[in-house]
Amino acid sequence: xxxxxxxxxxxxxxVDKEYCCSICEKHNTETNAAxxxxxxxxxxxxQCIHSHSKHGLWFNKQSPYGxxxxxxxxxxxxxxxxxxxxxxxxxxxxxxxCQNHSRLCCSKCVDLDxxxxxxxxxxxxxxxxxxxxKKLSVKVLKTLSRLKKLQGYREDSRRSMQVCYAxxxxxxxETMQLNIQSFLVQCxxxxxxxxxxxxxxxxDEMRQKIYSLLAEFENSAIKENKEELTLKQAPLLSxxxxxIRHHIELLRVYEALRKVKDRTELSLIxxxxxxxxxxxxxxxxxENFSDEVFTIQGKSxxxxxxxxxxxTCWITAMLVLPDGQFLVADWGNHKVKLLNQQYQVVSHCGxxxxxxxxxxxxxxxxxxxxxxxxxxxxxITFNQSQLVTGRHFQxxxxxxxxxxxxxxxxxxxxxxxxxxxxxxxxICKLYEDASGFxxxxxxxxxxxGDKLYITSxxxxxxxxxxxxGTLLAVFTDPExxxxxxVYVTPAGQVLVCGMLSHTIVQMDxxxxxxxxxLVSVRDGVGRPCSxxxxxxxSSIIVGLLGDDNIMVFRVE
Length: 556
What we know:
Elements: H1 8-15, H2 22-26, E1 35-37, E2 42-44, E3 65-66, H3 77-84, E4 96-98, E5 103-105, H4 107-113, E6 120-122, H5 130-191, H6 196-259, H7 264-288, E7 296-303, E8 315-320, E9 326-330, E10 335-339, E11 345-349, E12 353-360, E13 363-369, E14 375-383, E15 386-394, E16 402-405, E17 408-412, E18 416-421, E19 426-432, E20 443-445, E21 451-456, E22 461-466, E23 471-475, E24 483-488, E25 494-498, E26 503-507, E27 514-519, E28 528-534, E29 539-544, E30 549-555
Antiparallel strand pairs: 1-2, 1-3, 4-5, 4-6, 7-30, 8-9, 9-10, 10-11, 12-13, 13-14, 14-15, 16-17, 17-18, 18-19, 20-21, 21-22, 22-23, 24-25, 25-26, 26-27, 28-29, 29-30
């Protein structure tokens, strides 16, 4: 079993409320437990522990475990009931496992959603793999770390906002003080050489005027300032609180893994519930973490030339596969190459691909265009490190960039973007720009499918377009010259390669501003025309035009 390096303080914060005193429960009272006796298999609160004297004094080796040894406590009844309960049908227990969907099911889940799935096994018959738990441990730690990082970013933004508004409020107060002082000086000048009676009247009048100024100030300016701050802080607080909730929920299930390692069925359930919590956390972070800027930590180069290659490699596209391997389109040698996680070529097929997109976990689609007569989409399947070409369909226009989303294919022709069905039926033309030679080349889609990021090499621009073809943003920058391909990471970060500026630029998720120039010619990059990101190795991989090497930049 893999180690679980979570601090005891954090563990205590999460699991403390899961345990109730066994003695108090017998009297229908729910009190948090502070001790556990293994020999008695009993939990004790701070009061009931005084009645426990079966195994000697507390400080003896046989004494009950306190909260400082909470890792030696068994799983609580509350947690066990939570793990066994179906997340959808709360009153039902999980009893089955659908292999088609890799989902735990209760009897209602099977009847309603998995009646046609095969096989649906009883949980006790599902094989458990220890290596899965070790990999899961790494994923959990990485997810918990990213949740904390996202929470920290939003807390920093909130503090910065509070400081700005505090300074604004202070300036408003100082302005009000000056106004009052100015009014008092004016009153003092008017009261010189006047009678005592008139001065008394003036003092009362001044008091009313000052009260009026302060009331107006407090009820308008200060109130509006505080209301505006509250309004602007609301989305930040929402992210902070959601991160805390995801962190606690994931940590609770993660902690249960070690406590149930000897209980086969419960261990399997806990593992899959842990995966569900990771997925929920990742979906949320992908929606809120897209502008996290990468920092380069190191680089390496890897040769992808094969002995059968007759020309220098032109890596026009790259794709990270679900198992951590890579597909690269070597247009110079008319091949699609499969690389393992060490960036070594392990298989290939003879297809002159311009761009690649994922269709299913075992199938991709590539655009094939020779700039003369061939314009088609080719499907390639891979199984046990072998690439096999399958069906294909012809196009009536040039084809370069390609992406897939929810059963639709999006294809760039150089001057327009078209939407097709997977069978090759043209659905519509989404976007067109005929103002230059190559204006619609490479593109990527946001994970929500609501935005398309399109490169325009001839105009040295990045366009952001809505799903219906509406132009949302246009970006240009001296450090983004002749942009080729664009890539969206699993967390939603947008990476663009500028071929003539020799750069990889990170954009914000709206496509309106540059967040950073991540790599440039100073890093040894020359004519980059493809880029991708591997979450397995936390690396940005860059393909170059006319170079047998790919460059790998380790990032945080």
